[in-house]
Amino acid sequence: MPLIIPTGRLRNKPEAFNGEEPNSVLELELGDAIRPQGPLKYGLTVQLVSGELLVKGGLEINFACRCARCGENFDKKIVISDFFRSFSLETQNELINLTPDVREDILLALPMVVLCSADCRGLCPGCGANLNREKCKCRRPPKANVWNALDDLRLK
Fold first, then answer.
1. Mean pLDDT rounded to a whole number for the chain
2. Taking a C-beta distance cutoff of 8 angstroms, is the pair 56, 18 a contact?
3. Does the N terminus or the C terminus of the chain have fewer Cβ atoms within 10 A?
4. What pTM, to 2 d.p., does this model score?
């Protein structure tokens, strides 16, 4: 069920709008690297002010993620503490659907590249070892320094 606020029962004082919804309400199709896990939790304050509905508060949802560098699975919590929306009301008894706005804020809070940590070292390209947990096992020859060729350069 979408996050809907019935404005007909609201008065001019702030009212709490708290609860949980299944993550399926957000209709997020993000692929295998990041999947919503658990419910969407919200704690909002709603208020009618001069013909507008003001909604502010916080959102929280967990994601099951796979690191883009090392491939390890981890959980990431997205917390949005500054959710705010304003809706102009045409009548006194409307149903305002917050779901698209909540979905947008959550998508904007997600990282472009999902990493288990900012200093993730990834995988060795030679042997595939997870460099966060172990040292590389392959014996690659040291790379030749391409700048050494400049030492041999003779200019007239």
1. 89
2. no
3. C
4. 0.78
CA quadruple 112, 118, 123, 129: dihedral sign: negative
Residue 150 lies in a domain: no
pLDDT score recorded for residue 120: 94
Residue with tokens 């999947």: 35
Is residue 69 included in any domain, yes or no?
yes
Helix (H), strand (E) at residue 108 = helix 99-109
Q: Do strands 73-88 and 15-21 pair parallel, antiparallel, or not at all (unpaired)?
A: unpaired
As a whole number of Å, the CA-based R_g of the chain is 25
Indicate the number of domains in the chain.
1
3-state helix, strand, coil in the chain (%, to 5): 15, 40, 45
The boundaries of the domain holding residue 127 are 4-140
Distance CA(55)–CA(46), nearest Å, equals 5
